[in-house]
Structure formats: C-alpha cells, structure tokens
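hi! just following up on the protien thing from before. the input was this:
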Amino acid sequence: MAAVPFMNPEEIYAGNTREKKRKGQHEIVADLVIAGAGMGGCACAFGALRNGLSVVMTEETDWIGGQLTQQGVPFDEHQWIETHGATRLYRDFRTALRQYYKRNYPLTESAASREYLNPGDGAVSRLCVEPRAGVAVLTDMLAPYISAGKLTLLINTKVKNAEVDGNRVRALEVQNKISGESFFLKAPYFADATETGELLPLTETEYSVGTESKKETGELHAPEVGDPDNQQAFTLCFAMDYRPGENHVIDKPDSYDFWRSFIPPLTPPWPGHLIDLTYSSPGTLNQKTLGFRPDGEKTGDVMNLWNYRKIINRHNFTPGFYKGDITLVNWPQNDYMLGKLVNVSEKEFEKHVAGARQLNLSLLYWLQTEVERPDGGAGWPGICLRGDVMGTDDGMAKYPYIREGNRIKALFTVLEEHVGVENRTLVKGKAAAARAESFYDSIGVGSYHLDLHFTTKGTNYLDLSSLPFQIPLGALIPQRMENLLPACKNIGTTHITNGCYRLHPVEWNIGEVVGVLAFYASKNNVSPREVREKSQLLSDFQKLIRSQGIETQWPE
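and the predicted 3d structure came back as:
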C-alpha cells in the first residue's frame, strides 16, 4: 500500500483542526501535536483520537511505523506477548498483521490455519513481517480518523524550531522536506515521539543522553565516568533475498577494504574482524561463531544468521510463489560505531548514515563473494538486495535504527536496581529480587533483557538479565515542562535501563498512555504532574487506561 500522501496545509479545514495565518505562514491548531509517527507516535495518536481529541502528527519520512517499518526491525518482544504483557490495542495490531497476510497472500493451508501465523518464521520474534505490511495495517487503522478530519498526518515533515514560553511549549515550526514550505503547529499538548528525542533540546527541556556515571545513578554496571557522547551504535538495516542459480553480485564497494579489515576497538576486546561470523556473545562476551546459509537450512548447532530476522519463509506460501526467503539484516556485523546521530548537524547525520551504507554494502559483498560455504566454496552470488521491500532504491532502510536518543529528566528515573536481576539482588536481597520494583503510579508493563549494543566510545556489549517490569507515570513527566510529554523511548530511563524500555511493545505502551493522558489532563483541567501527585486523580487515570485495555501490572 502506498504511504499516506502529504497533506497541504491550505487544504486542511476538517473536524476540530483549525487553521489560520501567522506572519504569512499557516498555523494548524489541534488538541495534541505529535512529532514522529513511529510505534510510540502512532500509539499516542490512537490513545488521543479514541478519546475525542484532534491530532496533528508529523513524520520525517514517507512511512509511518518507526522501528517496524521505516527502520526495518521486526518485533522484539517477550515470551508471553500473545496473551498478556502489552496493551490490547498493540495485540489487536499484531492480529491485524496476521489477518493481512491471510487475506492477501497465497498461504499454504497449514500456514493459513495457524492462529499465531509467523510469515517469516524469524528466530527473533513470534511475528516477523515485511515493513510494507506494517505501513499498510497502521494506515488502515488510522484511515477513519483521517477521513473524519480528526487526524492530520503530515509525512515528509520535520520539526525545525519551537516556540517556548517559560515552562510551556507554544508552537512547533515544521517544514515539508519536499516542498520546502514551513508552517506552525499549535496545541495545548505536545508529544515527542521522534527517534532522537529531538524536541527536548529544541524546547530547552532538561534531558540526559549517553552514559551516566556510577556516582550519578548508583547503578552496578554504570561506568565510573559518564559521557553524553558515549551512545549505542546505530544500525541501517537492509533487506535481501536469495535466488539460487542467479548472479546478483554488486560492484566492490568503495570502502570494502576498510570495512573488511576493521576490528572494533572495544573493551572488553572484540574477537576479530567486524565482518566475520565470529563475534562477542552479548551475555558473556565470549567468542561465538554463527552460521550462514541463505537457503535457510540448518548450520549445525549454531544459529543460521539468515533465519534470525527472516520476514518471508517461502515454505509458508504456495510452492513457487517466492524464489527464496527474504530476510532483514540487523546483525552485529552492521552495527555502526564510528559516529553518533543524536544532537548533530544534518551534515554530520548524513555523513554517518552514508558510512553505515558503505558498511552494509561491504557486508553484502562479503556474503556474496567470500563467506565460507558448507561445500568449502566461497560466497553466495544469488543473494540480492530488495529495495522494494524497504521502499527505497538502494535496499537500505528509510531511516536508521537509533537505539537511544535524548531522555527527559523526569520526576522519576528508572534505574538498574529497579529492573536488573543482579543489581536488584545486590540492593534488595535475593528474596526481594524475585520481582521488579512495584510502582504505585504504574501505567504499563514490559519485559526484555537489558540489551545494550557496543558504543561509539568503545564499550562492548552489555547484556543483563532483567525482570518483567512496570512503566511508572513519573518517568513520563518532565521535571519542569508542563505540556511536553515523551511518547517513545525518550522517557526517564538511564543509558542502562533504556536497554529494556526501548522495544516495540513498551514504546507503544508509552505512546498510547501519553495520548490518553493528554485527554485526561485537558478534560479535568489539571496538569500531568497533578495526575501523578494527587491520589484520586491517579487512581481515576489508572482506572481509565485499564478500561481501555492497558495493563498496569503483571499477573501473579
């Protein structure tokens, strides 16, 4: 399905959205402005729209869906996701994705009969789907609100500036990246659902970024010295399939010799070259070797990387419909550590994305020409880039997967001792550490290990066991700003706890709650801070979100 078209501000007069002139430029007014239409942004829109608010949502690319779509990252989820541990709407979205395949694709009888169909059968998730499927389903879910004029969706639109008056944001100035036209968005509430938390510096909202020191947080695995520039590597994902008997070998990339010989300068050390099947196992940092066969066959007792994030398993479809499987590459071998993308100039951003593209092409070329085959040969020339899968000309994702951005300085900060097994045991004792910290102001739940990739300043993986956790409302409320709320992975976490609060279902939960919170605060003429600090308001709000399918605690 094609992306939602850009809506020219001169054509928007529907529903509760109002438009007027400001100094020769258009001004669009709504109840809530959301910057970023990723998982958190879309969920935020749904939370607000179903409660009657009008919404304007911007998106820097032409695809909504963030991690799942424009960035090409299949769902990262916990083991109980099919029945609990996420919002009802999130599970409805997953069900709609399965129905999309059952309705539109020539599935085998066996695949079509599966309640929990996984089109790709990727090892990373119980539901691995094509990015385009995510765009299509989210677009369908938003379509009624767009038709009724309740939602104004502005794709290819980026926030350029913010108007701030004291502790309140008054307006955002945005620009369409294609037409160059600038205009203003105004609302009582603003939600930052951008991938980098870019509204925080623009609005002068207090925030953290990078690593905090052990002295700052008391966390067991925090470094002795914090560094805002020490951030997790980002990944520019790409899609490829395998066509036996064909030759799709690309020209040797310009930077191939550099990347082929590159050894990540990490502490503890990386075991060899980045482009290789041997790497540091995240949990132990011991040397680990993976397998690779694009025909999907087993590679002994080690994981076949091809199957890790596979989004089309040809065997789920009628024989001959697919020549081969389709997989997404978000592997240790294409994590880019030579620069950061947060709080940098547009030129610097583009420079490092271009560097990541060269890394990807180098990895692809190595897979096509050099990687060892089971028969003793080298390379799989039938591997082919699939730009159509990613909606791009070159097969790369539309936007890089940025694991951590700016995080608000919140009323409450989630620390490693609240969710991490080892740190919690040290602080609370073994018996008390059987469960994560219980938050009186819980507005959601999640579960994932503390998963931190190697960093721009040379820290190797940090992968720690964690407990099924809650999301505290206090982590969603800035210390000072009154009408700006985080709606994705930019909540009050640390560098370490970001590692389990940044995944798809948690980001969705955060965004959905923020949409409902904007409604509840507006309806009752109270601030988000008051909702948390006044027990009756908090109780009423928690009752409201639970009635709308948002879980606030894990079952016993």
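The radius of gyration is 23 Å.
Confidence is low (pLDDT under 50) at residues 1-19.
cheers
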